Amino acid sequence: MKKTIPRPVISAEKAVSFIRDGMSVMVGGFNYGGIPYTLVDALAESGTKDLYLIANDTAYANDEHPEGIGHGKLVVNGQVRKVTASHVGLNRETGRLFNEGRLDLELVPQGTFVERIRCGGFGLGGFLSPTGVGTIYEEGKQTLEISGKKYILELPLRADVALIRAYKADTWGNLVYIGTNRNFNPLMATAADFVIAEVDEIVEPGELDPDCIVTPGILVDALVLKGDGYYASRT
Amino acid sequence: MLPALDDELVRHRIAKRIALDLEDQAVVNLGIGIPTLVSDYLPSDRHIILQTENGVIGAGPIPEKPDLRFIGAGGRPLSLVPGSSIVASDFSFGLIRGGHLDATVLGTLEVDEEGSLANWWIPGKLVPGMGGAMDLVTGAKNVYVATTHLDKKGRPKLVKKCTLPLTGVGVVTTIVTEFCVVRRQGGKMTLCEIAPEVSVEELLANTGMTLSVSPELRTMLGI
Q1: pLDDT score for B125
Q2: CB contact at 8 A, B69 and A181
Q3: Which residues of chain A have pLDDT under 70?
Q4: Are A180 and B86 within 8 A, CB to CB?
Q5: Active-site residue among B8, B23, B53, B114?
Q6: CATH (domain of B115)
């Protein structure tokens, strides 16, 4: 879809209507921080299924929140066929579905995970990482020896859609972040065909200091204002 | 039989001992569990910079009024010390892999004689995932394992060879339990400090890996 200026400010429902069954979706966040809650809640409501979820972790599902928190809900709802993540221990459903053979789970070291996304977004064919050499993680992967040290060849990751969380946007889609909400969000903004940013506030061009903008607006397709959900309003 | 110590005493003893090992100006990543407690015991005469895998360099204690937009490993709210900075995850792990961390402190399920550790997967049971642990043990200059000496069933966690999927191969530099400090010296796991409650014989009898006993063996610091 062709980008327009100003960037469209749309509802979360409208935003997730671009995500169709079977698509790959990147979701920003680390633990409960920096998740685009309003967007993933809408995606959970939409019932879109057969998704390939690419996220650092699968957020939460536990006794206190059996329905899940954030994109954890997508796993609980059975909307996800495959997950690529570095950690899924806080969402009991992810482990259960994997152990039952009902979910394809690719676990990747966190640094490798984000660097694969960076490669996907920045036109690189992959990179060589020392992380995981000699462990079960290495199995089935191509390795190379450079100057006597062994590395694993890691391949790029991209997605059809990225749902990210930022603090403020301007109407050109430029983004700034706050605190540890930043995490994977700026990288995911580079590595998907369609990027939707959930933000606290949208300001006029020129109001954000160009030196402080982390994500240039050319990467962002649409903006959604955060909702008033428990976590959306607190993070 | 090793003497039974109070759980809290054990956790704090391990954390305190590791804190005493950290050098002035060290950049340190603390994992969840016992490692988190290390921040309570940082020596006041040393400037130690805490890094979190999600991007903080210069993390401080939990603030009075937590702001959920500022969290560390395990989702623990944190404050920022004056002079801190925040980066995205690619940069954070660039720092980690790139050798810019002096130490990482993490828990484990098993640690073995070759300095390998296993803490991310119990096949068929728990699938938490490796998170940032594989990168941390690969990139940090010193890898501290903070662990109880025995597991919940009373079996040694310091084993001859790990049986669970490894997190890193030959990466561990120091192991601290409630009863000892073990350092990898010249490729050998060496008993360097021992708690006053146990004898060397008792300790070795409850340790799976072969330990060399340092000629400078001393009482565990910080007790």
Answers
A1: 82
A2: yes
A3: none
A4: yes
A5: B53
A6: 3.40.1080.10
